[in-house]
Structure formats: structure tokens, C-alpha cells
Amino acid sequence: MKKALAIINPISGTGSKKSLPELLGRAYSDLPYELFLAYTKEAGHGYELARRAASEGYDHVIAVGGDGTVNEVARALRCTQTALAIIPKGSGNGLARAVGIPVSTEKAIKALATGRRISIDSCEVNDIPFFCTCGMGFDAAVSKHFAEAGTRGPMTYLKTMIEQYRVFQPNTYHVSFGEPDLEPFDTEAFVIVVANASQYGNNAYIAPEADLSDGLLDLALIRPFGTLDAPLVLGDLMRKRLGENKYYETLQAREIIIERGHSGPVHIDGEPLDLGTKVHVRLLPRSLQVIVPA
After folding, report:
1. CB within 8 A of 216, min separation 6: which ones?
2. How are beta strands 60-65 and 2-8 bridged, if at all?
3. pLDDT by residue (tens digit) across 112-134?
């Protein structure tokens, strides 16, 4: 009989997880799997649990938690035959939304029990794995200050956005590519993002045409705009219509290098890190197996 492991982060994300063992047990009772449960105890524990499961030949590992938990598990399962499954319990749920997994716990478990396996691309930025987006500029500044805030939640995020918009200054970037037929260029940008998936999470579509399995990265640029245009840019982001916005530009490549005059925050699937002046992103085609709704 095949084996499956559910890795539950008891403190991450949103909503209670007390009923999850019973719900999972019920869903798996008629499936040809032996189901095991594990709870994370600290940062990095989910990665270790998932890596061990992959080495022991588990069919799939279910990540239960927010984006941080999902990323830990996904990083451990890259380039293995063990698939990632997700029960999203976070605020953004970027990868779950990108592959069509419902945010409702009951619906996600049902989709998992009847799902199918696909292969998606993954990425690395300065050798750090990610799956949806990494970027610099305004969104990275917001991500950094939100992570440092004393509270979480949508109101704190909105407050952080307003505060950062008042003080943020766009930077100039030099962009080059691994492909010789693509010309390097310099650009000033309010936001510059390398996307594997179409959205950050929360249905905020920074790269509407991005595809997780097309073997390409999407470079998404939002050029500086006036205050009066801010609601329009934000509205197009949420309506999946940035491609029609005059401040937006996009192109595709397999390898993208972004250089800037000084180091600063880079968000990697929503998590802020301080990286150097050179950010090198490359794609690993179809390197992660994921269970998605049938």
C-alpha cells in the first residue's frame, strides 16, 4: 500500500486545524493509502519531515498551513517522485490558488482525495528555491515592513501599503537574460517581478499570462505612475487586467538577471529577504509534482 504524510503547522496561517485529522482520516478511509500525520515544531521542521518522506518513497506529502509551510514542503520535494498536496490555511495561499486548489478546507480535502498529479516548473533566485513570484521594488518593501509589524491580518497589510507608498522611491534596474537573442535594458520600475505563477496570492495577478508548466519565466514591470493612477493600477492587478495597463510591461525568458545600485529587500513567494545588488533567477522545468483537482 502507498504511503501519504500530512505535515500540519499548528500555529501558521489562519483558522483552526483541530478537525483536520478526523477530516483527513475520513477522506482517506476508502483510498489505497496508509496516511500518517506529523506536526511541525519550528521553522525548517516541515522541510526535514518532507525530505525524509521523499527518501522513504512516500507517494505524496500534504502541506497544511500558510505559504511558508507550503514552500518548506515544496522545496523538499523538488526533483523527487513524491508529490506535493496542499490544504491551504494561509492568508495569501499563492501556490494553492495558482494550481486551482480551493481555499475551503473541506473542498481542498475532497479535491485531494479525487485529484490528479501534474508536473510544474520551479525556480531559483540566487540559488534559493521559489515557486510563484520573486520581486523587488514597492511590493518587496511592503513585504519587509509587514513582516516586521507587531500584528498580522489584512488591515495591518493595508496600513503598511499606505505608509510605504508615501515614502517609496522607485529604483533603476539593469535587466539581462540567459538567451543571447534577448537584448539587455535599463528601466526604472515601481515593481519588478519574476513570475512563475500568475499571481502573488489573494487573486492579485501580477503576471496574468504566466503558466506554471510552460518552461518560461515572466518578467513583469510596473513603471512609476502618479498618485491619481494608483487606484487604476491596483484595480487592474486585482481584475487580472494589468496587461491592458499603460504602465505595465512583460516579456518571457528562461533565465533573468536583475542588477541594481544597492542591496535591498526581495520578496520570495511573499517572504522578504535582503539580497545583494545582483539577483539571478533561473527556471527548473517540470521539477515538482503536485496533486491538483481532477
Report:
1. 252, 253, 254, 283
2. parallel
3. 888 999 999 999 999 999 999 99
